[in-house]
Design a protein that fits this description.
The complex is a heterodimer of chains A (294) and B (358). Chain A has helices at residues 3-36, 43-60, 65-86, 96-118, 143-165, 167-177, 179-184, 189-214, 224-235, 240-260, 265-280; strands spanning 133-136, 139-142. Chain A has 294 residues and is mostly helical. Chain A has one domain. A two-stranded antiparallel sheet of chain A has the order 1-2. In chain A, helix 5 crosses helix 6. The termini of chain A are far apart. Chain B is an all-alpha fold and 358 residues long. Chain B has helices spanning 19-38, 41-66, 75-90, 95-119, 123-142, 144-147, 168-191, 193-203, 205-210, 215-241, 251-264, 269-292, 295-298, 303-318, 322-335, and strands at 153-154, 159-160, 163-164, 243-244. In chain B, strands 1-4 form a two-stranded antiparallel ribbon. A two-stranded antiparallel ribbon of chain B has the order 2-3. The radius of gyration of chain B is 21 Å and the shape is globular. The chains are: A mainly alpha (294), B mainly alpha (358). The interface between A and B is large, with 54 and 51 residues.
Chain lengths: 294, 358
């Protein structure tokens, strides 16, 4: 295999791995948006909080990785549930802008709390796959990237089955399509919406725990919210398959921009895509065509 | 209790409608003019900074509060104004010409950002402006020839018509004068046909279009004007900071500007000024407070961010009309003292309303 092709294969792999994480974050944001029409700007900060708790559990308390992952998922799920039940639910019925402002306020508070509790330094922790790699056709891939792809695939499949086959999943779909009709059919809309938040929080926690070994555990990780927004817009706002596709594409675009474009484009590629898509094709790749969505 | 008793048509939309208004605002003007005689240089510097924030907040208020367009990226226009001004002054352009030019350059950038505003609104516009602010911040870092990149750019000393504005007192008066001019200009604009068109587009685009308002042009115009005013604030900010780096114009500044507008109360220039004062003074107040707080809390890095977030959340949840709304209620309470009815300002019960399939 020629060196150029090997490089291409490697950055494609990196792109898919990072993109899988963006997809997971985008998925959480879209789930919450579809259920409550709140665009959750605090999503990235829930992720940061989860990553820091995972660091505390793994590096400070010496818990095994999988145990820490499960604990963090449960904690962040409960946290997001509480966030909706106690705070965000109160602004139902107000303009969308209120939701944006409220979640930005919550994001500030969570970020402030995280740096108060855990300190402003970046941290890192070991995973069972740190430093290992696999050779395929003479190209080496980090094992953690393969694990990330597997985990994201499993979660997506699990969610798909959950929404199709369980009572709660169908109730969630119903209440996100029409709250009043769902309520009249006996769905406890408030609780279901809070549970959607919990689901979003748990996926954010997974994303955080797996993003931290690639990046670092740092409050600046919240910026992935914005990358996820680009992914959501690219895939089509409000579409779950679109969010996943968009996440993968944004991950790939970023990695290619980092290698093949001049220095500095890697950081702004996602935002250029966001603006370009919104101007040229506001409904994205898989967005629903009906109605006025923009 | 005060009754409206107008004998002339013009009285209905005068800026200062009552004799008390003249007295109150006169007192405020006198206090602001007299400030250099009893305030220290440090406090004057802070007051100038708050005035600059007031100008920027008024710019954003015009867009978000009066035209209904969300912008989460106004720090980009502050940055464009600041860098344009610093660059022009370094090229030898006199300050009297360079400040309006910087505002015009920022306004031109605003027109460019306004173009997506025709096609997208609401959340999407928020995302476009957010992305724009991040791109501008990165571009400033990359464009070394003009902006000095991450190394930064020093701003020449302010001087106008042979007078130096470098002393805190002179700079304070200059900022005060600009702020008053901007405030009066915007208030007058809002009483004019164009200003009414802004409010019309905010309240209902369909109705505005039905009344013959060119909605697209009004939206782009609002973006340009708002960016111009914010760029003007940026030009003044350049002198306040003295040395420009991209770190000074991050997302946090954009969000602080939005914070000012929301805390102040959307849809009123008084709110913009109140919000700017609160957000401008808050960091100073927190650092003062840290001396009193126990050491464990005071050393914390994230305290400021947390307090910002808590205040914003408080206003969104409990007082969506902001400080201005609170002020109106207080004034009504005092003026109609024994007869005040709480229900005058009661919020109507609201239900979940979809904005998806409009």
């Amino acid at each position: 295999m020629s060196p150029e092709l090997a490089l291409f294969a490697q950055i494609t792999m990196n792109g898919i791995a990072v993109g899988a994480i963006y997809a997971l974050i985008a998925l959480g944001i879209v789930l919450i948006y579809k259920a409550t029409e709140v665009l959750n700007f605090a999503h990235g900060d829930i992720l940061v909080l989860g990553a820091f708790i995972a660091w505390a559990l793994i590096a400070l308390m010496g818990l095994p990785f999988w145990a820490a992952l499960l604990i963090v998922m449960a904690l962040m799920g409960a946290f997001a549930y509480g966030l909706d039940a106690l705070v965000i639910r109160r602004i139902a019925g107000q303009p969308q802008f209120s939701g944006v402002m409220l979640t930005i306020a919550l994001a500030f508070m969570i970020r402030g709390l995280v740096s108060m509790i855990f300190g402003p330094e970046s941290q890192s922790y070991r995973t069972p796959w740190s430093g290992q790699s696999t050779q395929v056709f003479g190209v080496s891939f980090a094992n953690i990237e393969l694990v990330i792809m597997g985990v994201v695939l499993a979660i997506t499949l699990g969610l798909w089955l959950f929404f199709r086959n369980t009572r709660l999943g169908v109730a969630m779909q119903a209440s996100s399509q029409n709250q009043l009709a769902a309520y009249l059919n006996g769905v406890q809309v408030k609780r279901v919406n809070s549970l959607v938040f919990a689901l979003g929080g748990a996926t954010a926690a997974v994303a955080g725990v797996f993003l931290a070994p690639i990046a670092l555990v740092d409050t600046a990780l919240w910026l992935v919210t914005l990358k996820a927004l680009a992914a959501i817009v690219l895939g089509g706002f409000g579409s779950i398959p679109g969010a996943i596709l968009g996440g993968l594409l944004i991950g790939l675009i970023e990695q290619y921009a980092g290698v093949y474009l001049p220095h500095g484009f890697k950081d702004i590629a996602a935002y250029l895509v966001l603006i370009g898509v919104l101007i040229l094709r506001p409904r994205g790749i898989l967005g629903e065509a009906h109605g006025r969505r923009v | 209790m005060r009754f409206a008793y107008d004998t002339e048509y013009r009285q209905g939309f005068a800026l200062l409608r009552h004799p008390e208004d003249w007295a109150n605002y006169g007192l405020l003007a006198a206090l602001l003019l007299a400030a250099p005689f009893f305030a220290s240089n440090y406090i004057l510097g802070e007051m100038a900074y708050v005035l600059i924030l007031c100008i920027a907040a008024m710019g954003l208020m015009l867009l978000t509060g009066f035209t209904g367009q969300i912008s989460l990226g106004h720090a980009a226009f502050v940055a464009i104004g600041a860098y344009a001004h610093a660059w022009l002054m370094r090229q030898g352009v006199p300050m009297a010409a360079s400040i309006p030019l910087a505002a015009l350059i920022a306004a031109a950038a605003g027109l460019v950002v306004g173009i997506p505003a025709i096609r997208v609104h609401g959340l999407y516009l928020a995302m476009v402006t957010l992305a724009f602010a991040i791109i501008v911040e990165q571009l400033i870092g990359m464009w070394r020839g003009v902006t000095g990149g991450f190394m930064g750019l020093s701003v020449p000393r302010p001087e106008m018509f042979g007078l130096s504005l470098a002393s805190p007192t002179a700079f304070y008066y200059f900022c005060l004068a600009v702020a008053v001019v901007v405030l009066l200009g915007l208030l007058n604009l809002l009483r004019s046909g164009l200003g009414r068109a802004f409010v019309g587009v905010r309240d209902s685009e369909a109705a505005a279009a039905g009344l013959g308002i060119n909605v697209k042009r009004v939206k782009i115009g609002a973006f340009g004007l708002s960016a111009g005013v914010t760029g003007l604030a940026g030009a003044l900010m350049a002198h306040h900071i003295g040395y420009l780096t991209p770190d000074g114009f991050t997302l946090l500044l954009s969000l602080e500007l939005v914070l000012m507008v929301v805390i102040g109360g959307l849809g009123s220039m008084r709110g913009a000024i109140m919000g700017a004062v609160v957000i401008g003074v808050l960091p100073v107040a927190i650092s003062r407070l840290k001396a009193v707080l126990p050491d464990v809390v005071a050393r914390q890095f994230g305290l400021e961010l947390f307090v910002f977030g808590a205040i914003l959340a408080f206003f969104v949840l409990f007082e969506p009309r902001g400080l201005n709304g609170r002020w109106l209620k207080l004034r009504a309470l005092i003026q109609s003292f024994p007869l005040y009815r709480r229900d005058t300002f009661r919020r109507q019960k609201a239900y979940m309303k979809s904005e998806r399939d409009k």
